[in-house]
């Protein structure tokens, strides 16, 4: 009986949640900062566009994601690759309601990230944001336009629709990413 009691009362602290270092990229206005702030339960009113980079620790039940968010302006994007080192996964946010020109730019940026030597083997979460806007393209349209199938064959990537008003779906997308990260790190060990 005492054994049993000791097992119940002396469990010790819960195991530490694994932490993963991620890089978050996407054009200015795609909604990177707003999505991450909402995941951290910060007020969306205080969101300003990221000019350099910012780091947020985003807590989930089974992991903590240290997300390095890089500003998406033209003059900053050329420096993105300097911040890739040490990343264990990539979040790419695109505005699914943006102009053709911006979508084309986003596609080129995603393609170079998927092929970058420091990122090409990592899990990618691609978020088609602003699904709540009338002009938003569906996930199928985005997948086709971004030519993801041939480019990302053999890579671990998830393409998910998202918007700020559907937090459940967003959290679910991140849960899928965490599963990919766990698998990826297990393979690396």
Radius of gyration: 18 Å
- Provide mean pLDDT, rounded: 89
Q: By helix and strand content, what is the structural category?
A: alpha/beta
N-to-C order of helices and strands: HEHEEHEHEHHEH
Instruction: Give the neighbour order of strands across the main sheet.
Output: 2-3-1-4-5-6
Number of helices: 7
Mass-distribution shape = globular
Helix content: 25-40%
Distance between the first and last residues' Cα: 40 Å
Low-confidence stretches: none
Strand-residue proportion: 15-25%
Largest sheet: 6 strands, mixed
Q: Could you tell me the number of beta strands?
A: 6
Layout of secondary structure:
Blueprint: H1 2-9, E1 19-25, H2 32-39, E2 53-59, E3 64-70, H3 74-77, E4 89-95, H4 100-115, E5 124-129, H5 139-145, H6 148-151, E6 157-161, H7 167-188
Parallel strand pairs: 1-3, 1-4, 4-5, 5-6
Antiparallel strand pairs: 2-3
């Amino acid at each position: 009986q005492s054994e049993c009691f000791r097992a119940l009362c002396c469990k010790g602290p819960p195991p530490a949640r694994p932490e993963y270092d991620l890089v978050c990229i996407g054009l200015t206005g795609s909604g990177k900062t707003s999505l991450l702030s909402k995941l951290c339960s910060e007020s969306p009113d205080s969101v300003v566009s990221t000019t350099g980079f910012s780091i947020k620790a985003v807590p989930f039940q089974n992991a903590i994601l240290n997300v390095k968010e890089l500003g998406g302006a033209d003059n900053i994007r050329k420096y993105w690759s300097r911040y890739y080192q040490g990343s264990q996964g990539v979040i790419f946010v695109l505005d699914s309601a943006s102009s053709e020109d911006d979508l084309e730019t986003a596609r080129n940026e995603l393609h170079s990230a998927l092929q970058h030597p420091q990122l090409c083997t990592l899990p990618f979460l691609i978020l088609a944001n602003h699904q709540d806007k009338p002009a938003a393209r569906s996930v199928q349209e985005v997948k086709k336009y971004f030519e993801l199938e041939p480019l990302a064959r053999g890579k671990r990537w998830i393409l998910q629709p998202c918007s700020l008003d559907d937090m459940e779906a967003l959290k679910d997308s991140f849960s899928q990413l965490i599963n990919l990260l766990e698998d990826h790190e297990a393979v690396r060990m």
